[in-house]
Amino acid sequence: MRKLLILALVGLAAQLVDGALGMAYGLTSSTLLLFAGVAPAAASASVHLAEIGTTLAAGISHWRFGNVDWRVVGRIALPGAAGAFAGATVLSSVSTEAAAPWMAAILCTLGGYLLVRFARPLRPHRAAGRLRGRFLAPLGLVAGFVDATGGGGWGPVATPALLVSGRLAPRTVIGSVDTAEFVVAGAASAGFLIGLGTEGFLLPTVAALLIGGLIAAPIAAWLVRIVPAQLLGATIGGVIVLTNARTLLRAGDLGGPAPALVYAVLGAGWLTALALAARALRRTRRARAVVAAAAPAPADEAGTGPAAARAAVSAASGPAAVSAAREPAAGRAVADPAAGGAGSRSLAAAVEG
Question: Contacts by 191-194 with C-beta closer than 8 Å and gap 24+?
């Protein structure tokens, strides 16, 4: 019973992270399960089976809020399902000893990506046109494969790629990726079922993760109003890197002062990423305050209009804020509470920073 309660807390924590960032449910759950001693294939299989329920709930919520582009869902979900099925088959055929370092390396890489992603602002890029299938299909295939073999990675791979394209609003990116993940999780579970059989799924673990995730869903909507997504993303990225570095060091049989040195370097990098994330967050908030104060001015004659606002913003926080001043309507659309869920607003704030 104590173990199941711990697993429920794991599912709760993972859903809180996913609700705040629009990604990292699989990363967080798989990392904590591996840390608890669960075999890699069983951890990934159990997480994906639990994700069928959590992603279904997330997809319905996004659909009700109008955050889903069904064209994007259709073109990314089917290749993602194929990649996830192939990844699950590969992971099922690899021994536990060989799979543990491989899975830890993938998770460590994705955790490092989260550190870099949230330590610096991603400047918005508005491009015309629609996303093409020749871009969406390979993206879904790779993201699905990484997701199944690494126990997570669909969101960290797919979401940033679509955000950088600039052709979808952040809330639509998150809603479409989360909705497509339901198909990906189902395909990965089918692959694990064929490769491992029913004994490959730890059903009590699945139930505990699912219950914790469902409980955390409304809490996440409240949490993202308090904890900035940028700081949360950098924090979780560091936890994932340090936890999986332990597995890699054990696999490499490193002794002596080497492990302590590696942990010191990783810890310093984590603290640096947190400091950069905090600085970027402060500069973003200061820039928005300047823009909000200067927006009501009607003209440039007195040095108070849009041009003066852009100059003031530039002096306050640099080129990224100038972009925000040039596109006030887009910024308001992303931040509109009626436009999407709490997770969308939180990640949109990080993206616009």
Answer: 191/84, 191/85, 191/86, 191/87, 191/88, 191/89, 191/92, 191/148, 192/41, 192/44, 192/45, 192/48, 192/49, 192/88, 192/91, 192/92, 193/45, 194/89, 194/92
Sign of CA dihedral 267, 270, 271, 272: positive
List the alpha helices (DSSP H) in the chain: 2-21, 25-35, 40-64, 70-92, 96-119, 133-150, 154-165, 170-196, 203-223, 229-251, 258-294, 306-317, 319-326, 328-335, 342-352
Splitting the chain (353 residues) into consecutive groups of 10 residues, what average pLDDT does each group show?
Answer: 79 75 77 80 88 83 84 94 93 76 81 84 58 88 88 79 73 83 93 85 86 74 63 79 82 79 91 91 86 67 48 46 42 38 42 41
d(CA 56, CA 204) in angstroms, rounded, equals 20
Angle at 142 between CA 140 and CA 147, to 5 degrees: 90
**pLDDT value of residue 151:** 75
Please give the pLDDT value at position 247.
77
Q: Reduce the DSSP state of residue 64 to 3 states and report it.
A: helix
Four-residue CA torsion sign, 314, 224, 279, 177: negative
Q: Do residues 12 and 215 touch, judged by C-beta distance below 8 A?
A: yes
259 CB-near residues (< 8 Å, 6+ apart): 249
